[in-house]
Design brief:
Length: 425
């Protein structure tokens, strides 16, 4: 119907992809894309990598050229914040006092960095305390990355370790403080954690695990952080502090509108909320995974793009694509870490290749089923592993470890030694 209006809240990768995918799939009516930031929609992953240390420009971050929005008849409102959804009237109130009506609404609001309790206890945010989610965050942090300075990074996840790598490349001292007992604890399993901790230590990064930040010592005059103090008494002097301790989904709009929210906006298989006129995609979404038989919320660009394309298909009465295993990536030093699947619940791990060669893969299995695979500088293993996981192909762990056995053969051939080929976890 040419008079229907599709309104999308959030112009990150997911929201922007919904707009263009819907137009391509046949949406004839108006499409409006709203975003809080003043910039054109841009890629976020380079913010903690190439953009942070100046290897790419701000212009290169743009998801699309300005002409693309005009050609696809997409109205882009940058710097516009939605503050309330009125589902009965099908209208969204904006921070400037205006309202926008909709026939279909897609929430692609993403998330925001979790704040550090010790920082929240301060009367004001110190000038040398940083979070990293937006281009504005990256610009401010980039100005502070100078040779000879010490950056204390709270959180040893993707963002923290990527910034640590950028910092040492820029001649800085990088100290990483992690509350868990290993790096990357929230996103991967023990073998990869141990490997990446070793790589960072060899590069000169100091890593403190089992270390909970208790206090930020600030200067009375400037209010800048001078040191970070941990609960065990450890005191670390700092020129600047970056906090990367996870993401909080932006689900407040949905919750205030009476939609179901539980660690994200809850959606069905078609990405619809309980209100059929409201859908959601991306980091703010919690959806039931038929692959893992539980609800999950996935924070990754590939997941946001896949959900966006499927939401567009549903909106245009087209069949959505089958949902594959979630995947993620991180670039640190000369290492390309690509991960597919979720390793929670594995009972055996198998390493293929030699970590000393800076090229190997770690497989996480439960019985004969591969739950997840972490690959380091092994793009072929990564691509094949997507099928192993998504198609629930049973494998012999010993064959996985044997590099003389082709992974492609394991995917394409029957393995008579496997007794539980149809077992479902």
């Amino acid at each position: 119907m040419p008079d229907r209006h599709l309104l999308i809240i959030g112009n990150g990768c997911g929201g922007t992809e919904v707009a263009f995918a819907a137009r391509t799939a046949g949406w004839e009516g108006r499409i409006t894309l709203l975003g809080d930031e003043k910039f054109q929609p841009y890629h976020r992953p380079p913010l903690s990598k190439a953009y942070l240390d100046g290897r790419v420009s701000a212009e290169s971050l743009n998801l699309r050229g300005a002409i693309a929005y005009e050609q696809s008849r997409i109205t882009l409102h940058a710097g516009h914040r939605a503050v309330e959804i009125d589902r009965k009237r099908r209208r969204v109130a904006m921070s400037d006092g205006t309202e926008i009506g909709y026939d279909q609404l897609v929430l692609a609001a993403g998330g925001r960095p979790r704040t550090l309790p010790a920082a929240d206890a301060l009367p004001a945010k110190p000038a040398n305390l940083f979070y990293l989610r937006t281009r504005t965050d990256a610009d401010a942090l980039r100005d502070e990355l100078r040779p000879g300075r010490t950056v204390v990074i709270v959180g040893a996840g993707y963002v923290g370790l990527e910034v640590a790598a950028a910092a040492v490349r820029n001649g800085m001292t990088a100290i990483v403080i992690e509350a868990a007992n290993r790096v990357l604890a929230r996103v991967t399993a023990q073998p990869i954690s141990e490997y990446y901790e070793s790589v960072h230590r060899q590069a000169g990064v100091e890593i403190l695990t089992n270390c909970l930040v208790e206090e930020l010592e600030t200067s009375g005059e400037s209010g800048r952080i001078e040191a970070v103090r941990c609960s065990d008494g450890t005191r670390v002097a700092a020129d600047l502090v970056l906090v990367g301790i996870g993401l909080t989904p932006n689900s407040e709009l949905a919750e205030a509108a009476g939609l179901e929210v539980e660690n994200g906006v809850v959606v069905d298989d078609d990405l619809r909320t309980a209100d059929p006129r409201v859908m959601a995609v991306g980091d703010c979404v919690r959806q039931y995974s038929h692959l893992y038989d539980r609800y999950i919320r996935v924070e990754s660009v590939p997941n946001a793009l896949e959900q966006a394309r499927n939401a567009a298909a549903v909106l245009c009465d087209k069949p959505p694509r089958p949902v594959g295993a979630p995947w993620f990536w991180s670039d640190q030093y000369d290492l390309s870490l690509k991960m597919v699947g979720l390793s929670e619940g594995y009972d055996r791990s198998v390493v293929r290749g030699n970590p000393k060669d800076r090229s190997f893969s770690a497989f996480y299995l439960r019985h004969d089923r591969v739950l997840a695979v972490d690959t380091v500088n092994r793009p072929a293993d990564f691509n094949i592993s997507k099928r192993l996981i998504s198609e629930r192909i049973p494998v012999d762990p010993d064959m996985l470890a044997d590099e003389k056995v082709s992974l492609r053969d394991l995917v394409n051939s029957e393995q008579p030694s496997i007794l539980h080929a149809t077992a479902k976890i």
